[in-house]
Design a protein that fits this description.
Length: 305
């Protein structure tokens, strides 16, 4: 009887030891999950602070450049050298690309490993993702870096460019720009729509013609200049038609006759007045700037200035 009870106790003890080992394994797994999450948080924070620091450096650099040029123009004007003052101003405008910092204000990789979400879903994450204007500014910075940057800067610019080209072959880049169409051709372009940083939100109301897959050159060089005004507002730039096409060609690698602009027709605008702005080619060998797809359209997003 005593032997039988002893055997039962031994079996019970072995069961408890097995349960303890299983519990220890679970604890190890929980600890590992915790460490993984902790490391992801630290990585995200580091990336965020690094980007913010780079953006601040860029802003300071650009502000110092403008102040120096302004001071020079004031001195020339005070000295009565009006022609030289005007020439200095024109030179600064004409060389606008070179005044752009070699720090590229667009994240090298897309958020959440290239996750595919709607614009509203990206907004809901609380992440401040790039507008179409941020993309265009970054395109100019890439071009400037490749022409004037050092080896490390050119390497980073090339990686970003290649990541974008790879991304566009299979999915759209969802921007934080939204277009609100009215019952006529007038519409409001909103950069950083619903951003938590209200200082970034920028609105402009203009006439947006109907472009159902129109070549960008035709849009930019229409006789009444409405297409150029639309694109300048959308990209938040004062660049000429030639500069816009040259910049887009440089980054996308697409010839001018393979770049298109899309805006919805009047019926579509009436049915759904709010549309997001996307970029991509989806392996069609054409680069599209789309201002007419519905808000449920999917794409990846990345941080920007």
């Amino acid at each position: 009887m005593a032997l039988q009870k002893l055997e039962q106790l031994i079996l019970k003890s072995e069961g408890l030891l097995k349960s303890k080992r299983d519990l220890d394994t679970q604890i190890i797994g929980v600890n590992q999950d915790y460490m993984n999450i902790r490391n992801e948080i630290l990585t995200e924070l580091k990336s965020t602070y690094t980007n913010e620091t780079n953006k601040l450096k860029q802003e300071i650099e650009e502000r110092n450049t403008k102040m120096m040029i302004t001071d020079n123009i004031v001195k020339l004007t005070d000295a009565g050298n009006f022609e030289e003052a005007v020439a200095t101003h024109k030179e600064y405008i004409n060389k606008g690309e070179k005044s752009i910092s070699t720090i590229i204000s667009l994240d090298k990789t897309a958020y959440d490993n290239g996750a595919y979400k709607t614009q509203d879903d990206w907004i809901a994450t609380g992440k401040d993702f790039a507008s179409i204007a941020d993309y265009y500014k970054a395109f100019k910075q890439i071009k400037n870096v490749m022409e004037n940057g050092n080896a490390e800067q050119r390497k980073n610019a090339t990686e970003l460019k290649n990541n974008l080209l790879s991304e566009w072959k299979s999915r759209w880049s969802v921007t934080s720009t939204r277009v609100k169409y009215n019952n006529n051709l007038e519409a409001t372009v909103i950069q950083h729509y619903s951003s938590q940083d209200k200082n970034k939100v920028k609105e402009a109301t203009i006439e947006i013609p109907i472009y159902e897959g129109v070549k960008i050159e035709k849009v930019l060089k229409d006789k009444d200049k409405k297409g150029l005004k639309f694109m300048q507002t959308l990209l938040d730039t004062e660049d000429t038609a030639e500069m816009i096409m040259e910049t887009l060609n440089y980054v996308t690698g697409k010839d001018i006759d393979r770049m298109y602009v899309y805006t919805p027709d009047m019926n579509s605008r009436k049915q759904n007045k709010e549309r997001l702005v996307l970029l991509g080619d989806l392996s069609l060998d054409y680069f599209y700037i789309c201002c007419g797809l519905n808000s449920d359209s999917l794409g990846c997003a990345r941080g920007g200035a």
